[in-house]
Amino acid sequence: MRVAGYDRAREPDAVRAAIGVTGQFSAVDKLLTGEENLRLMADLHHLARSAGRRRAGQLLEEFELTEAARKPASTYSGGMLRRLDLAMTLVGSPQVIFLDEPTTGLDPRSRRTMWQIIRDLVAGGVTILLTTQYLEEADELADRIALLDRGRVVAEGTAEELKRRIPGGHVRLRFADPQGLDAALQVLRQASRDGDALALRVPGDGSLRSLKTLIGQLDDWAIEVDELSVHTPDLDDVFLALTGNPTNEKVTSP
């Protein structure tokens, strides 16, 4: 097995040098400033003093922490701490990063900022192995996804490949009046009413071919549709379908 081009058995030191880890719980020393935390990491990587200062300054700027650089990390917000934590991992310029739940506890704005940082790292050639409980995050960031259930991989593939593994995709048609809905029901035998709304659900995978067929049927019968939307299963649906129901444990008192 090779990691970042290095043989794991023959070049273990090079493999370790190529790997960075940012855990779920911050490794930041909150008694130090942001700049001091980065310089400490530079010392641990045996960078020369001047090189360590340059690297710290570069990362503070890249992660938008320059203004807070000389403030104690204890004064940082959750989003700032996560950015500093990841910046500390990058001091040694790793080629492979293990990133464990990078956005846990962050507000939506901080989460999206972290997502962009991760995208920029990947665009720069860094390989990231990311673990997350937020399947929306996996959908946004991952080239390939592995779903785990009780420590076992139950499915693997791209987000789109995984979504196609379960049924449930449909096209929702909304009508302006009951007459239009009733007319569509006569034509689209596979459709079903969508609750009490003037809408139908038509099973389909959302592909261009199936949409053309559906629209052609409606045009042939001059049926007016107020609104059309395509709904496909998301990764939450995939996870629930592939992992099954959790075991209910009954606790009894002696």
From TrEMBL:
Q: What domain of life is recorded for the organism?
A: Bacteria
What is this entry's stated membrane topology?
Peripheral membrane protein
List the GO cellular component terms. Answer: plasma membrane
Annotated GO biological processes are:
response to antibiotic
One annotated GO molecular function = ATP binding
* Pfam families given in the database record: ABC_tran
Sorted keywords for this record are: Antibiotic resistance, ATP-binding, Nucleotide-binding, Transport
UniProt xrefs under InterPro entries: ABC_transporter-like_ATP-bd, ABC_transporter-like_CS, ABC_transporter_ATP-binding, P-loop_NTPase
- PROSITE patterns, per this entry? ABC_TRANSPORTER_1 (PS00211), ABC_TRANSPORTER_2 (PS50893)
Compartments it resides in: Cell membrane
All residue ranges annotated as the ABC transporter domain in the record: 1-175
Q: What is this protein called?
A: Daunorubicin resistance protein DrrA family ABC transporter ATP-binding protein
Q: Which organism is it from?
A: Phytohabitans suffuscus
